[in-house]
Design a protein that fits this description.
The chain has one domain (6-80): Alpha-Beta Complex (Ribosomal Protein L22, Chain A). The chain is 22% helix and 21% strand. The protein has one helix at 6-27; strands at 37-40, 48-52, 62-67, 75-80. The strands form two sheets. A two-stranded antiparallel sheet has the order 1-2.
């Protein structure tokens, strides 16, 4: 990661962070265990959980899906077991003025 340009480092950092955060939220562990979760981010492939506290057996059976809700934002969905079809919806929310 050190050899990547600065803008790519930031992109990879947030992609890894959101995958780790999604796993920890899915397991109910909270954010205190981010350093325990290892994520593999290979260009052109879906991310996957490499290991939890160095144990790769724990990660089998978990699915990771990287999402881009809007330009400049990162989001991940992690679930135990496979996920069927994912559909994303976009809806503009207009500001309401008070009367």
């Amino acid at each position: 990661m050190r050899s990547l340009p600065r803008d790519r480092k930031e992109d990879i950092f947030f992609k890894a962070w959101t995958c780790k955060e999604a796993y920890l939220k899915a397991t109910g562990e909270g954010l205190s265990g981010l350093e325990k979760v290892e994520v593999c981010l290979t260009p052109g492939e879906s991310p996957w959980l490499l290991s939890i506290q160095g144990n790769s057996c724990i990660t089998s059976g978990w699915s990771v899906h990287q999402l881009t809700p809007a330009p400049g934002y990162a989001c991940a969905l992690v679930s135990e077991g496979p996920v069927g079809r994912l559909r994303c919806f976009s809806e503009r929310i207009s500001r309401c003025s008070s009367h």
